[in-house]
Amino acid sequence: MSQPSSWPLTTDSQRVVLPRSLLQQLQRHPLSQRLYPLSYGYYHHADQHAITRNAHSDYLLIYCVQGQGICATENQQWHISAQQVVLLPRAVKHRYWSSKHDPWSIYWSHFDGTDAQHFMDFIGHNDQAAVIHPGQPQELHMAFGELLNVHPSPWRLPQALLMCQWLRHVLTLCGEQQLAPQQRQQLPLEAIQQYMQQNLHRTITLNELAALCTMDKFQFSKKFRRATGLTPLKFFTQLRIRQACQELDQTTASIKQVAAKLGFDDPYYFSRLFKNVMGISPKHYRMHPRQQEP
């Protein structure tokens, strides 16, 4: 796989490189083998960030949120500014660097899997690269933030599977740029997610969420799914299960207590839902052998 840059991290920056043993599991697992991250991160005000690759063995996404930079392949060069996405396919020689006068801040991910090329085709790239303006920049920012929040430490397969789901969500949002302006659905997703986060302790309804946007539940659900790639309740369920993972990792609370804290009266239903999302029961999640970081 292509190595990420060794740019020295600042306090507000983050770089995650998955260990080879975990990547081998993701390449074999039916829930992840079609699309999985190799590495990802966020570089804030990346002064003097630059890299050249003559051999590129995976796929790369860069999302510029502030500042400016340059990306070049053998045949073309692009000036990159805020709210632009760069997608580089496998085997394309490239180089990119941050502006000296206005260094960029970027989210990025190296990724692979049998669906990687399908996403590149869906988003619409030429043989060299794609530079696009995503139709939902705020939602893309939020989705990358969720990907970074799932960073498993120590390394565990169930959380890595959740990373794969958020990566798929990120790439789906990049495809939103193909929609005509009148088709782009503007929802207050940050406010909706904040409401969900504040109510992880109970069950919320589709009507309740739709009322936040003064829409009927059918219109709201359609717009939310178009914007995020997930139904509203499935999105909410993933947030609750992610919180459950944190409780199981960081506390000694029983599974029944964790379920009750998140508003599940029936711990057996909670366990089934947890397994449906994570691919493993909460009991086995807590007992799962932990791998050391490299």
Relevant terms:
294 residues; alpha+beta; Jelly Rolls; Arc Repressor Mutant, subunit A; 2 domains; six-stranded antiparallel sheet; four-stranded antiparallel sheet; 10 strands; 19% strand; globular; disordered C terminus; AraC family transcriptional regulator; transcription; HTH-like; DNA-binding transcription factor activity
Describe the structure.
GO terms for molecular function: DNA-binding transcription factor activity; sequence-specific DNA binding. It holds the Pfam family HTH_18. This is AraC family transcriptional regulator. The chain is of the alpha+beta class and 294 residues long. The protein folds into 2 domains: 122 residues, Jelly Rolls; 103 residues, Arc Repressor Mutant, subunit A. Helices cover 41% and strands 19% of the residues. The chain has 11 helices and 10 strands. The strands form 2 sheets. Strands 1-2-9-4-7-10 form a 6-stranded antiparallel β-sheet. Strand 5 and strand 6 form a beta hairpin. Helix 3 packs antiparallel against helix 4. The C terminus is likely disordered.
What is the 3D form? globular
Secondary-structure arrangement, i.e. CATH architecture of the largest domain: Sandwich
CATH C-level label of the largest domain: Mainly Beta
Which structural class is indicated by helix and strand composition? alpha+beta
GO molecular function, one term: DNA-binding transcription factor activity
Domain HTH araC/xylS-type: 190-288
Organism: Idiomarina tyrosinivorans
Keywords: Activator, DNA-binding, Transcription, Transcription regulation
